[in-house]
Amino acid sequence: LFQICFPYQYFRYIKFKQNEQNYTMKNLFIIIISSLFLVKCNNSNPIMKQWSDKSLEFGGVPAFDKMTPKLVKEAMLKGMEMSLNDIDKIANNPESPTFENTIEEMERSGKLLNDVYPYFGILSSNMSSPEFRKIQGDLAPKLSEYYSSINQNEKLFERVSAIYNGSKTNLLENNQQRVLDLTYKSFAMNGATLNKDKKQRYAEINLELSKLYNDFSNNVLHDEENYVTYLEESELKGLSDGFIKSAKKIAQDKGVEDKYAITNTRSSMDPFLTYSTNRAIREVVWKNYYSRGDNGDEFDNNQIIAEILRLRKERVGLLGYENYAQWRLQDRMAKNPENAMALMEAVWPAAIARVDEEVADMQKVANELINPKIKIEPWDYRFYAEKVRKIKYDLDSDEVKQYLQLDKLTDAMFYVAGELFNYKFTALEKGKIPVFHEDVNVWEVKNKSSGEHIGLWYLDPYARQGKRSGAWATTYRSHTTMDGKTNVLASNNSNFVKPAPGEALLVSWDDATTFFHEFGHALHFFSSNVKYPTLNGGVRDYTEFQSQLLERWLSTDRVIKQFLVHNNTGEPMPKELVAKIKKASKFNQGFDTTEYLASAIMDMKFHLADPYNIDVDKFERETLTDLKMPTELPMRHRTPHFGHVFSGEGYATAYYGYMWADVLTSDASEAFSEAPGGFYDKEVAKKLVDYLFSPRNSIDPEEAYRLFRGRDAKI
């Protein structure tokens, strides 16, 4: 390395050795300087430069333009090493444990690793590659060992326990007590109270799970990338011009001329199944999408899922819990799996009954249009639902799309953020901020009144090779005030099919709703007023509530009149069309609710079942049969590609949370609809920000909701 980086110094050093010269001051100086240069060369990794620095513009930003998988791996390993050194110092502090010298120092620890994680996350979710997937596989067990070494550090837990027990008689400040309670609970839930042998097994299980989660994700991504349906020009009937142009461009990008590509993602599959008149190809596209991870090959996930379920049950059994769901839900709003199941089971009969009505309507249309008659199959549902929509409500989804331009929807979200949160979004010039792909744009977020800088918002809207499907929000840096105020770097990520050059990106009403939903998460990040990093976390069945609530502003009159304008004429959406949309707002809710609930119930059923010798595919089929799942539609996420649940633990036994959040959303919406100013009422908006968004996890969610509403939510 010395020879490559500094050939002249290396040459002088070799000459010195060859001549066996005496150690003169001059020669010694050359060796010392050369050694310093070597150290500098060895630390030239730009990813290891800690970019979170309040003295830099925007508080420092990630050098996304310089990252490579190898550099990120090196930085992740170094970050873990330095973080564990921080933890070791805290655990072995000879002074008596206090909140300041233990909990606060834990909050400060791992700065380099915190700075490196955004790079790792981008390469994992937005820019994956075969090279990175191998590195990710190498890092997964090391990360598991890293977290286990912290959770099972006996000296550290002794200090945390001492402070926790002491706080029962000498209460801390509210935010300090909340951090302490969450920290202690996290240790206890992750094996800190176990004996030596059980701790070892607990860590071994985490290590095995980390590898399985990584394999599961890579298998799904493989099937998304490799099952592409190519169409001839004669097979495009029913599809819109914009979709056809986009499909043409995607095929060309993949090196296939004179054909049209339907990729194996929801954003490509959904419109194709809705509008294509070619039933045979609809079946192919449908089966490709819903068979991800379930093709009986080396990328099949069924056995991986069985092993994940078995290991999860064994792990929580070490802690004395009967099943994984019982362990996971103890710190959620639902509290236990029985409460979560009760809500879902209350809704399920009505949902499948509505599906029966929807299928009857569709079957009638199909019987009139098709000869010989067909039975509605899953690949027919979207197609005939669209036919029924036109007949019942005179509503054409493609007509609605003409008023839903992504750029205008982005402006609409900024308007809502300005009215409710007093935020102003200003686009930054390309090149001002490093980004990981040319499609990414960045906005600065400021307080409209004071001009105070709040943070940066990154938008990565388009699907691409190596990007996981779906839509999500994330942070590269969160707000805290523990050591001076930090700004927020937040990101929204979608998988819209990129339009052909010069064409506007037109989206469906459902996609527009999802766009608002994910922006709700970003606003939750930006509005944080917490002191300690831990308090930026959240309770899963509560944090979806804020984002679901923001969806309601898409259909407000102000947004419709100002931003839902026709792609060609620029005219606002006519009142007649708005009326049709609102009248049809509950249309197809049997499909939407049933496909979601089936996944949520299946998530819970899997984790309540005995996982030993389980046949995952058989269990899915038999459970859905017992539930009387309509055969005309699938679960939203079939088990072999249910990444929410099996690519990690964030949503495991927690997918029900969207419905739990729906209860809060509906109740909170009434607070606005009952107010004098409606959905833009300043007084209710202030309470929304103060009690539901800004506190993050600094107060109990139920208490926060009562502060906003003056009572508990009503189902």
Radius of gyration from CA coordinates: 28 Å
Give the overall form: globular
Largest sheet: 5 strands, mixed
Integer average pLDDT: 92
Alpha-carbon distance between the termini?
66 Å
What is the helical fraction, as a range of percent?
55-70%
Strand order, main sheet: write it out.
Answer: 3-4-5-7-6
**Low-confidence residue ranges:** 1-16, 38-42
Give structural notes.
The chain is an alpha+beta fold. It has 29 helices and seven strands. The chain has a five-stranded mixed beta sheet, with helices on both faces. It has a two-stranded antiparallel sheet with strand order 1-2. A hairpin with a 5-residue loop joins strand 4 and strand 5 (453-462). Helix 20 (509-526) packs across helix 21 (540-550). Residues 1-16 and 38-42 have low confidence and may be disordered.
How is this structure best summarized?
This protein has helices at residues 2-5, 7-19, 25-42, 69-91, 99-108, 111-125, 130-151, 154-166, 174-189, 196-226, 241-253, 266-275, 279-290, 302-318, 324-328, 337-369, 378-393, 397-401, 406-421, 509-526, 540-550, 557-563, 575-583, 589-608, 616-626, 643-646, 657-673, 682-693, 701-709, and strands at 229-231, 260-262, 423-427, 441-447, 453-462, 472-477, 488-496.
Indicate the topology.
Layout: H1 2-5, H2 7-19, H3 25-42, H4 69-91, H5 99-108, H6 111-125, H7 130-151, H8 154-166, H9 174-189, H10 196-226, E1 229-231, H11 241-253, E2 260-262, H12 266-275, H13 279-290, H14 302-318, H15 324-328, H16 337-369, H17 378-393, H18 397-401, H19 406-421, E3 423-427, E4 441-447, E5 453-462, E6 472-477, E7 488-496, H20 509-526, H21 540-550, H22 557-563, H23 575-583, H24 589-608, H25 616-626, H26 643-646, H27 657-673, H28 682-693, H29 701-709
